[in-house]
Amino acid sequence: MFSLDKLKVYDKALASAASLAQHSQSWDKRHAVTDPLLRASESVVLNLAEGARLRSVAKRQHLLDYAIGSALECAACLDIAHIKEFLCQNEALEEKRSLCEVAKMMVGLKKAWSVEAFHEEPGRYGKSAEWLFPHERLDAYRLSLEFMRWFQGLLGAPKLSTRQLRQVDHAGTSLVLNIAGANGRYVSGERRNLFEIAESAVVRVGTYLELCTRTDK
């Protein structure tokens, strides 16, 4: 069992979670991005803590997969928050860089936890100056963000005053986050499940947009 005070990544994850919580305090809670950001940032910390107490290599690896996926979901939330003008570009980029550092350390820790000896190793993650996280180069991810930009500008930036608009926002946010989160899952079954959730979100987006059109909302 590993002591948390030996994990530098744990302190960085805590600092990141606290910073994200501070940013989100002023956000309009009707927007779907707020709760997933807080849940995902807490998930990183909780899964690191839980993994540190376990002796089973397989269980430690599994929890780290969840932590890495949650870090990617946080980064995707920040992209949406920037689209919604909750954060300026520099604020979003600063928080994403912090998350990228946490993700790098967790990738290195995953390698280290594959053996019994305890040590943290740096992990390679983003390799291009154009993107911090692997999911950012995916066409599907970029297109999902383009949809959120379009939706944000729809009808002069919707205030999510109707249930249909809130459902579109919720499904669109789910689409973005699950594409990102799937790229942090190393178990093929879990990755496939998240992509299936993303596909379902596309269907829900289309359906609620049709409902908005038919009801003139």
Main sheet specs: none
**Which parts are unreliable, with pLDDT below 50 for 5 consecutive residues or more?**
116-122
- Secondary-structure class: mainly alpha
Principal-axes geometry comes out as: globular
Strand content: under 5%
How many helices? The count is: 7
Keywords:
69% helix; 217 residues; 7 helices; single chain
Please, could you describe this protein's structure?
The chain is mostly helical and 217 residues long. Helix content is 69%, strand content 0%. It contains seven helices and no strands. It has helices spanning 8-24, 34-53, 57-83, 89-112, 139-153, 163-182, 188-214. Helix 3 packs antiparallel against helix 4 (89-112). The radius of gyration is 18 Å and the shape is globular. It starts with 7 loop residues before the first helix and ends with a helix. The relative contact order is 0.12. The model is unreliable at 116-122 (pLDDT under 50).
How would you summarize what this structure contains?
69% of the residues lie in helices and 0% in strands. The chain has helices at residues 8-24, 34-53, 57-83, 89-112, 139-153, 163-182, 188-214.
Which SSEs are present, and which pair or pack?
Elements: H1 8-24, H2 34-53, H3 57-83, H4 89-112, H5 139-153, H6 163-182, H7 188-214
